[in-house]
Amino acid sequence: MTDFTPKFDLAGKVVLVTGASRGIGRACALACAGSGADMIVGVRNRTDGADLVGEIERIGRRALAVEMDATDLDTVRKGVADAHAVFGRIDVLVNNVGLGPENLAENVTEEDFDLTVNVNLKGTFFTTQAVGRLMIAQKGGRIINISSQAGTVTLKGEAIYCMTKAGINHLTRCLAAEWAQHRIAVNSVAPTFIWTDGTRPSLAEPDFHAHVLGHIPLGRIGDPIDVAGTVVFLASPAASLITGANILVDGGWSVA
């Protein structure tokens, strides 16, 4: 008898989340663990991941923290290799590391430009390459890039950030086309403003908060779990025919 019930659990899967120590990355790691996955948490310093590892283990899943600094590709490659040595496979990669120094285009410095491009684009690409090689060898996997609505809409003072996130969206499509033959699905998730430690100071300002809400038809700022839920879906068997997609989790900002 055909089973028409979609499967959203990640039982038996090994998931690597980069930038996992806080915010969206932490929420994604906990959501994947809660859905049955064993977790690799990529953090800049291994001590940053100790609490998260403990929390995942209390859920009943295995967890390992590995050092991965997107500005130092040697640590990225070593982190991936160390994780693979422990678990023997990586089924899902969630590329969550990203930053965006805010400045009007006429005031952007070369230092800020290089940092944003190196972390958001170069770091994401070479992390994906390292894990993608393993997925090619194991004949399958899922790659989920955390993009931003900034890759689709314009944000004043965020020209370089917007540029890199648009680049992530197109990289997603390119890799989806190139790696489909290896049964690797590549998708991106593009959130609006999300309540995190990094955004809270700006969103706490009444004028800015009102400005942001004015662009979101659904009428609220996002929470990390809003992004994590979409990540779990894309990592799950229920999304097995989805690749090359960019899913906007923006409350309608991009269509308003």
Can you list the strand order of the major beta sheet? Answer: 3-2-1-4-5-6-7
Number of helices: 8
Per CATH, which architecture?
3-Layer(aba) Sandwich
C-alpha geometry: globular
How does this structure look, described?
The protein has 256 residues and is of the alpha/beta class. The chain has a single domain, classed as Rossmann fold (3-Layer(aba) Sandwich), CATH 3.40.50.720. 43% of the residues lie in helices and 15% in strands. Strands 3-2-1-4-5-6-7 form a 7-stranded parallel β-sheet, with helices on both faces.
In short:
By secondary structure, the chain is an alpha/beta fold. It is built from eight helices and seven strands, in the order βαβαβαβαβαβαααβ.
Features:
256 residues; alpha/beta
Task: Itemize the secondary structure elements and their pairings.
Blueprint: E1 14-18, H1 23-34, E2 38-43, H2 50-59, E3 63-67, H3 73-87, E4 92-95, H4 110-138, E5 141-146, H5 159-179, E6 184-191, H6 200-203, H7 206-213, H8 224-235, E7 246-249
Parallel strand pairs: 1-2, 1-4, 2-3, 4-5, 5-6, 6-7
